[in-house]
Amino acid sequence: MPNMARICIGVAIIVGTFLLGMIGMINAITSGTFDVVLILVYTLGVPFLGFLFAIPFLCTGVREGITTPPGGTVSVRYVPPSTQSQPAAGATYVYEPPTVCPSCRGKLTSSNVDWVGPLTIKCPYCGSSVPAVKRQV
C-alpha cells in the first residue's frame, strides 16, 4: 500500500498553492493592480510551482507502496496471440439474422425479418431489435 502520509502532503501542497494563487488574484483585483502578468502568475505560475514542490512527495509515497515478490525479481511471460482469432487472408463475411430471437425465442429467417438498420433486424413476433450475426463465408 502506498505511503498515504506522503501522498496526502503532496496533494495538500498542490491544493494549497492553488488556493494561494486564487487569494493572490483576489487581492490584486481588490487593490487595483491587476494586469495580464499577474493573471498568468496567479493562475499558472503559483499552482505550477506547487506541483513541482509536490512531485517528490507524490513519487516517494507511491514508490514506497510498490513491493516486489519474495524472490526479489519480477518475471514477465510472453503469450503469443491465438491464431484462431485472426481472420484468414481475403476472408469474406456476411451478416444474417440469428436463428432465434433472444426476447421471445421465435424462429428467425432472412425471409421473415425486417432490416431496421445496417446490422439490426426487427423480430416479426415481438418487435424487438436484434443485432445481426457475423458469419465468415
Describe the protein's topology:
Elements: H1 4-31, H2 36-63, E1 93-96, E2 114-117, E3 120-122, E4 129-131, E5 133-136
Antiparallel strand pairs: 1-5, 2-3, 3-4
Helix pairs in contact: 1-2
Strand order of the largest sheet: 2-3-4
Summed up, the helix count is 2
Please tally the β strands and state the result.
5
User: What fraction of the residues are assigned to beta strands by DSSP?
Assistant: 5-15%
Q: Report the sheet with the most strands, covering strand number, pairing sense and barrel closure.
A: 3 strands, antiparallel
Radius of gyration: 31 Å
Q: Unreliable stretches, pLDDT < 50, 5 or more residues?
A: none
Strand/helix succession? HHEEEEE
Span of the ends, CA to CA: 52 Å
User: Structural class from helices and strands?
Assistant: alpha+beta
Helical content (DSSP H or I, runs of 4+):
40-55%
Mean pLDDT: 80
Shape: elongated
The domain count comes to 2
Question: Which structural traits does this protein have?
Answer:
single chain, 137 residues, alpha+beta, 2 domains, three-stranded antiparallel β-sheet, two-stranded antiparallel sheet
